[in-house]
Amino acid sequence: MNVGLLTGGGDCPGLNAVIRAVVRRVAAAGGRCTGILEGWRGLIREMTVPLTVAETHGIVGLGGTILGSSRTNPYKNPETDVASVRAHFEALGLDALVAVGGDDTLGVALRLHKDFRFPVVGVPKTIDNDLDAADFSFGFDTAVNIVVEAADRLRTTGESHRRVMVLETMGRRCGWIACYAGMAAGADYILVPEVPVDLGRMLDSLARRRQAGRHSALVVVAEGARLEGPADPACYPPRDAPGMPRPEGIGASVAWIIENRARVETRTLVLGHMQRGGIPTAADRVLATRLGLAAADLALRRRFGTLLTHRGGQIAEAPLTAENIGPRSLDLAYYDAAAASFA
Amino acid sequence: MNVGLLTGGGDCPGLNAVIRAVVRRVAAAGGRCTGILEGWRGLIREMTVPLTVAETHGIVGLGGTILGSSRTNPYKNPETDVASVRAHFEALGLDALVAVGGDDTLGVALRLHKDFRFPVVGVPKTIDNDLDAADFSFGFDTAVNIVVEAADRLRTTGESHRRVMVLETMGRRCGWIACYAGMAAGADYILVPEVPVDLGRMLDSLARRRQAGRHSALVVVAEGARLEGPADPACYPPRDAPGMPRPEGIGASVAWIIENRARVETRTLVLGHMQRGGIPTAADRVLATRLGLAAADLALRRRFGTLLTHRGGQIAEAPLTAENIGPRSLDLAYYDAAAASFA
Amino acid sequence: MNVGLLTGGGDCPGLNAVIRAVVRRVAAAGGRCTGILEGWRGLIREMTVPLTVAETHGIVGLGGTILGSSRTNPYKNPETDVASVRAHFEALGLDALVAVGGDDTLGVALRLHKDFRFPVVGVPKTIDNDLDAADFSFGFDTAVNIVVEAADRLRTTGESHRRVMVLETMGRRCGWIACYAGMAAGADYILVPEVPVDLGRMLDSLARRRQAGRHSALVVVAEGARLEGPADPACYPPRDAPGMPRPEGIGASVAWIIENRARVETRTLVLGHMQRGGIPTAADRVLATRLGLAAADLALRRRFGTLLTHRGGQIAEAPLTAENIGPRSLDLAYYDAAAASFA
Amino acid sequence: MNVGLLTGGGDCPGLNAVIRAVVRRVAAAGGRCTGILEGWRGLIREMTVPLTVAETHGIVGLGGTILGSSRTNPYKNPETDVASVRAHFEALGLDALVAVGGDDTLGVALRLHKDFRFPVVGVPKTIDNDLDAADFSFGFDTAVNIVVEAADRLRTTGESHRRVMVLETMGRRCGWIACYAGMAAGADYILVPEVPVDLGRMLDSLARRRQAGRHSALVVVAEGARLEGPADPACYPPRDAPGMPRPEGIGASVAWIIENRARVETRTLVLGHMQRGGIPTAADRVLATRLGLAAADLALRRRFGTLLTHRGGQIAEAPLTAENIGPRSLDLAYYDAAAASFA
User: Fold this and answer.
1) What is the pLDDT of residues C208-235, one digit of tens each?
2) Fewest beta carbons within 10 Å, which of A43, A54, B71, D155?
3) B315, β-bridge pairs
4) Structural fold of domain B2-139+280-319
5) Which chains touch D (3 or more CB pairs under 8 A)?
6) Is B103 helix (H, G, I), strand (E, B) or coil?
């Protein structure tokens, strides 16, 4: 059996552990693996590498993906690209495809399976932890630990200078990273997309903290938190105010508001791509390995049109459906727990 | 309401996050907390500190326990010590006690509750992950990451010198740390108490690996793995063999066997107490914080004789019973997954 | 003897190790220490704390400064503030002052010594490594390691996505951090203030790299590198070009140029204040401890109007002069060594 | 020009950075490099790999040595092995050899140069920092940081349990790692080979500490510290005392003494090979890169029979002599500075 393997969308720590596990399980069953380069683009253009146990040696703790990734979607040019995908899949002599990716990558897998009974197994991947298929997705734990290490560093310099430090994390659609890392770092306020931003409450909280004698604070903000809406307009720089340039990005905007409304020195850090790179944590390596082994099992048993889920600590098979690759918001119980640290 | 708080048994990263969370939740509800020093010993001898929000500031990421710990058990001298515990509990004006500890510490809590309706709430703590009450216990994730970092370091020097590196981890009764960290590190063999040790199979596996051209290997061994029993006696140095000193400790014994039977240079590292110290990981801080908040809630609601459990990702209340604080072995599905990396 | 101790200017890892060492040495000689809070502001306003061996326990590895810091300069209002400094110094019964800081903080010390024979000992501090008094200044090693860890993370995601990653480091006046960290990270190009920026050469280098089959690259840029001047105007977005917003910051500008001129996806990370916070490295703790011990010795021996230098690995006494606290540029031999990695 | 390159003796972090730098500099000069595998063994047996810029990509931050290492010494069997070294050097068409190693490896280089004008350039390597040629040798900074991280972890658990923690570091002949790491960790006592061990003084110091209310302590011991000699026999378990097994290793012996003489719970950690593996620190990568570039320059300029030195922060050429590769003891000024933290 020849199992193709591709990684699509934004990369995250743990992808190589998935690859390694698939290759080892398939090899142990007497099959072989073909690595498809750069996500779906590799099937459109037939860019592949052989994947053997020897070639995947030592990658369990390596960041990124040795297969490369892309956001290429063959359904943008279905007539040419979907046809190429099918033709190259045939030409490569593949019997199955394990596709590791987020909603976009798995959305393609879903359509291919629906349209052509394409023999695909999906492995959900989202560093933001925002896929319905998983309570916790690999890469998330690594990202959170990177944020917490940065937050711990910002704390000490913030306290030395009595500054508010604003740390902007990944999370365009959801607040998992911001909330989870904020709770771990003992953040003094956290802003996430799932909770309407109440700037007045934030400023009150920071003021109470100062009254209690703590002149530094740490605010964690998810990239996707939005200031629009019911916020007190007095807090916020209007877009066209003369001589009042509106800062770019949510982190800088929140810092602007704190500095100008609370009159306290404030600094911002946008961690960006650092959150998705480098050595994965132990938990991410283990979860990714378990998913890789399970995906190989499904492929070997020809359970196609399926997806792996990770819920309640268990990895299970589920149908590859739009629901299962749908979005997942922050569990607000976590936000409430984190908010217990707010003054 | 005056909530007493103690930490007993071996310390682990996350205890301070529990303490901080209890204090914050109790304070938010208008109560106050009293810290009992050094586990049950602090109630026997009335050694306490006040615990306020200000005094627990900045400890969420601090290793150890600011309250100190001990293995003192008042039921060893019940007439004097149990009486002291009850008298001091009264004298301190405590309304509830949150006890954070393993089977010993919680066993005392259980007896006190049975014998005297002592108003206690238990929080399970085990760095070894071997309590029935929790799928994953705080401290475990930190320990595993420490082991994996050590393993990653041992790998590079092992490969430079074509040596087998044997890494002995904590785990007297269970193989959770060894198995989980071994899987994350891509260990070439793992020995745990739950799986009968088959030295012949281990040596065969290492030999296959060498035949495949890999002259270095990493073997992870839980402290509690046992060589006695069905092992091939040819593998093992008999205790009284002349001129053949039996090495101390399981790690050194396994290394002895590999060096002498497989004739390959072998080195051992026993990580010991380093695994239970220092900065907790993000996941341990979050889990500990959630447990602390939930424990405070139980105390505030006077739900005594209870214990928190962490199963399927959920924290829940359960009765404080011998079963719930009973032992928990390694889930062998993890061992099977880890074994997929063995040659 | 009563030794005052203050930390001024931007904080950096190692300040607490200096404080601890001064306190221990002075205490061992039978003297005592008084901590001045928030730099010179603490002497203007008489904000102090006692500093004992017990109170400085456990801070050798703590980031920031337990004394707080500020950029307050009494010579801005000499009539009131300099007078206050002198009056409070008297009132506190201080015999000596150890001032830890950069050119601003030590400049005040220098003037006070010149004007009033103020009994001061200076300890140079600059995270940017840009003071003449030291080949290597404490805090620098920590900052560099933080940059390198970030760079290692950016590498893996850059390679997965075939992107150029631009990492902007601290260094307003000098390129020490960018160059040293860039060399350690194997950066593919480095931009520093000391070397005129040649954007054409940078783009050629990145192009050669791509021709050699490497589609990702890492560019490290010091905050203070300047694009103005002899740069090819074709590379750079003019400030008023319609529909072409000029990006803010040097990192974003360089990324803009690479993305638009080399037509390759590019991402930027500005590490900012994270570089000056958190746990100091071993080398910074050792250097800071050695400086603290030497500063205490000078104070105890009443060698005032002096400064410690760190040159050729040796710590020595020097007169506190404008030259010794003058600026220090990157040693270009390091840049040449780093450039050996450019394609 | 064809430059051979080998790494001998115990590996250490930074070797790959040396290799990478040599390869890049030689390639830039139009030459090429040949990697000799496993130290001198690779020349005896003609085991080589080509070393190109592409093949050394991404190794600057990789622990160990991609060339492998060994302690093989051709002068043990000079008639056969030295002859093989010379014959294979010829057969491989090598023009120069860069040998990276400690006193053994460089001792062979020295003899080969003396006996046959062998065209060799030496790069000193010692993780223990015990070679005369270098104030600081690459690998040392990494080892020290690993020790300090372990010490920081031991601290928190030691304090929770009021235990003395004994940490045994590398350093068979010298106390550099123990002293430098001990100072960085704020160790309460440090034992090194260069300072006669005075157990009575150590016990007194720990007792004073307890009297000051600190019930935990950290003792750092170099592997090569010796208890023999003027030590109080009352402190030490005699080798043949009945029922009193003498512990193995210096760390365990010191712990035995503290536990039995001071009557305080004590635990030991022997860090061993973990200290020489894994990702090198920034400073080690930079130093190794500078040495590699300088070694390539010497080879390209045919400056054979030379060695690189690292003194006063400068890298310089020196003759390859027995003196220059002779031993180097701990600078006792460091020990005195570290001792300022002893109670």
Assistant:
1) 999 999 999 999 999 999 986 555 666 6
2) A54
3) B310
4) Rossmann fold (3.40.50)
5) B, C
6) helix
